[in-house]
Amino acid sequence: MSEQRDLTIHGQWSSRWTFVLAAAGSAVGLGNIWKFPYITGENGGGAFVLVYLICIAMIGLPIMMAEIMIGRRGRHSPINTMRILSRKEGASPHWKYIGWMGVIAGFLILSYYSVIAGWAMAYVFRAGSGEFVGASAEQIGAIFSNLTESPARLLGWHTLFIAITMIVVARGVKSGLEQAVRFLMPALFVILILLVGYAMTTDSFVRGLHFLFDPDFSKITGAGVLIAMGHAFFTLSLGMGAIMVYGSYMPQSASIASTAMIIVAADTLVALMAGMAIFPIVFANGLEPSAGPGLIFQTLPVAFGRMPGGVFFGTLFFVLLVFAAWTSSISLIEPAVAWLVENHGMTRVTASVWAGAATWLVGLGTIFSFNEWAGFTLFGKTFFDLLDFLTANIMLPLGGLLIALYAAWVMGRRSSRDELAMGRPALFGMWHVCLRYVAPAAVTIVFLNAIGVVGA
Ligand code: PHE
Asked: Is the CB of 36 under 6 A from ligand 1?
């Protein structure tokens, strides 16, 4: 029985640490460095950050454990894992639709994620050519608008990024990814420390910290709470099967709880450091914290333009950002590719080509939403905004809610206790209660609150 569970047709990580690196590679990405600062800026700072941190601890961590557990027990793509486990547990096969929703969410997220990763690629060359040296915040702003106003340039970078993503996916996560994450993650961390160091030399460091960590609850709305919760799912790669599919390649002997804790801690630390680097620069240069998706591209170059060795560090930073985005993108499309291989008998290469082509096509919508179609809005949102809202704030929390319900109510207590093998029964009990009641109730209340049904 347990021997059978060890089998997966897609191969297995060579050790627990490879799983940690791959999952951290999935979690740490544009969400931490690009999205977290700009949505924090748009939603008023401290109170938003506090809600985000509470969601990470109370909802994110237990659901991450649930996803890894379900994945490792099922050992297939999320769609088939849900189907197979449901059969074993005597539950409805319809639970497989969680897997389906996840595949669609991952595909939609990658379609715009790739466009933003393209900005980061373009900035590798901007930084490398020394364009930022001594440039004013306005000049830097102009460099950014020049890029986003050109569909042709965005298209070129988007195409390149999808291509490099699909090349790794085609080679298989094991051989494709293991080496990449090993040294890139630590390097990214070091350069973030450096950026926080630079931020300390500006006279707005303390103001930046206040903005991030002083909660002013008058600044947060029901919609803001929904965005904070959605981001907790987005940044941890939860609710769509990415962590589940990586869990399915995890060795049977590794501890799920401690592994999940390491990933959550690393992810949160990176986001907070990005915030601590960015907001002091925002205030020191009289920029707007609520500048939107361009925030890091309009602020960090100012710092690189002024610090010693800025051309080198700036180039390195954007290279690492591209790598961070790359390791996340791979996990966004892996559930779809694993399913195509399992159910349609495709090779990984064919599956990757199809998945990549479809993602590329949908990405055009995001490209145009920054220029030609910027005027077309629905509910005041552009195509990009709508896609981001639908995936991060609705599909991921909904997927996460269903995963929590599945793990805590549908899967037998014995199955989960066996798979988690936590040692201490009290910890297992806490996890179970969190997943049974706390996380589902919290997600439901935040949803209802955002549409104005409960609370203010
Ligand atoms: N967690 C990634 C980030 O923060 C994005 C992501 C979301 C990746 C969902 C996989 C699944 O950038």
From this structure: no
DSSP assignment of 72-108:
HHH-S-HHHHHHHHHHHHT--GGGHHHHHHHHHHHHH
With a 6 A CB cut-off, is 270 part of the ligand 1 pocket? no
Q: Is the CB of 296 under 6 A from ligand 1?
A: no
* Nearest-atom index, ligand 1, CA of 234: 7
What ranges in 90-172 are assigned the alpha helix state H? 96-128, 137-148, 151-171
Closest CA to 294 of 136, 107, 146, 396: 146
Residue range 48-105, pLDDT digits in tens: 999 999 999 999 999 999 999 999 999 999 999 999 999 999 999 999 999 999 999 9
The pLDDT confidence band at residue 139, using thresholds 50, 70 and 90, is: very high
* 381 SS3 class: strand
| Full set of structural domains in the chain with CATH | 3-450 (1.10.4160)
Rounded Cα gap, residues 192 and 200, in angstroms: 12
| pTM recorded for the entire structure | 0.95
Q: Quick one: residue 75, left, alpha or beta (phi over 0 = left, psi -120 to 50 = alpha)?
A: left
Eight-state DSSP code of residue 456: -
| Cα–Cα distance, 394 to 438 (Å, whole number) | 18
Local structure of 372: helix, strand or coil: coil
Own/partner contacts of 82-88, CB < 8 Å, gap of 24 or more, are 82/406, 85/411, 86/410
Bridge partners of 290, per DSSP, are: none
- Whether residue 378 contacts residue 387, with contact meaning beta carbons closer than 8 Å, is answered with no
C-alpha 256/C-alpha 284 separation (Å) is 43
DSSP H helices in 345-407: 348-369, 383-388, 396-405
Q: Is 215 helix (H, G, I), strand (E, B) or coil?
A: coil
Ligand 1 within 6 A of CB of 237: yes
Query: End-to-end CA distance of the chain, in Å?
Result: 52
Burial state string for 382-402 with b = 16 or more CB within 10 A and e = fewer than 16: bbbbbbbbebbbebbbbbbbb
CA dist., res. 135 & res. 150, Å (int): 21
Please report the DSSP string for 355-371 in residue order. Answer: HHHHHHHHHHHHHHHTT
